[in-house]
Automatic annotation (TrEMBL):
The gene is nagB. Belongs to the glucosamine/galactosamine-6-phosphate isomerase family. NagB subfamily. It catalyses: alpha-D-glucosamine 6-phosphate + H2O = beta-D-fructose 6-phosphate + NH4(+). It comes from the Bacteria. The keyword Transmembrane does not apply. Keywords: Carbohydrate metabolism, Hydrolase. Residues 14-225 form the Glucosamine/galactosamine-6-phosphate isomerase domain. GO terms for cellular component: cytoplasm. This is Glucosamine-6-phosphate deaminase. NCBIfam families: nagB.
């Protein structure tokens, strides 16, 4: 696992965008795995800048997102589909028909998850998967548990995740309790992985991810085993490591 230390959030966002840009330039029809959360927003802004100045062409890119709330349809402004349209897809020349997010409006969770896993398999896997890091070490919505889930599945969100996300909803009762998420196996099968982490509030968990034991209690710790994983984190997020 490579760790790249950046000065601050803006520096992290630029460096992460440079890595994604290299992927798109080298393989214009690549499959990008994308993430939501506040951390990647700056990276998406940087990608939009590079598209606007002519450096990037997304016309042949396909994308698959990590996760989606169960029970929210794509027009709900709290859905991850809505987030992606707003922060990236509507701002670059990607073909929206080539962008995939698990179908939160599908009530049959086995179907929603099997269909999504099949989409990724049909692509022949993900070239570059972007990840944020939850405060409890989750990636996608793979919460701490006693095993590493293999494929896309339905999860009950941890209380801490519901709390962290309630700021985006009018009332706490509106925060969905379940989500569809790529499994740890789905993520680990990506050819390369890029994790963005910012801020002192992530320092403790990031130290565990990098230096701690590999355990499903810290889901992101499995990334230590990935042959091509890169963490781009700012000084504050790395402040509990010796890096
Ligand atoms: N499902 C998403 C994760 O993919 C994301 O990494 C995490 C951290 O979000 P933030 O970047 O806002 O800290 O939030 C959500 O739970």
């Amino acid at each position: 696992m490579r760790v790249i230390k950046t000065k601050d959030y803006a520096d992290m966002s630029r460096k992460a965008a440079n890595i994604i840009s290299a992927q798109v330039i080298l393989k214009p029809d690549c499959v990008l795995g994308l993430a939501t959360g506040s951390t990647p927003i700056g990276t998406y802004d940087q990608l939009v800048d590079r598209y606007e100045n002519g450096d990037l062409d997304f016309s042949r890119v396909n994308s698959v997102n990590l996760d989606e709330y169960r029970g929210l349809d794509k027009d709900n402004d709290q859905s991850y589909r809505y987030f992606m349209n707003k922060h990236l897809f509507s701002r670059v020349n990607i073909d929206v028909a080539h962008t995939y997010v698990p179908d939160g409006s599908e009530p049959d969770s086995s179907k929603a998850c099997a269909d999504y896993e099949a989409i990724i398999e049909n692509f022949g896997g993900i070239d570059l998967q972007l990840l944020g890091l939850g405060h409890n070490g989750h990636i996608g919505f793979n919460e701490p548990t006693d095993h590493f889930p293999k494929n896309t599945h339905c999860v009950d969100l941890a209380e801490s995740t519901i709390n962290a996300n309630k700021r985006f909803f009018e009332k706490e009762e509106d925060v969905p309790r379940q989500a569809y998420t790529m499994g740890i196996g789905t993520i680990m099968r990506a050819k390369s992985i890029l994790v963005v982490v910012s801020g002192a509030d992530k320092a403790e968990i990031l130290n565990k991810v990098i230096n701690g034991p590999i355990t499903p209690e810290v889901p992101a710790s499995i990334l230590q085993l990935h042959p091509n994983a890169t963490i781009v984190a700012d000084e504050a997020a790395l402040s509990k490591t010796s890096l």
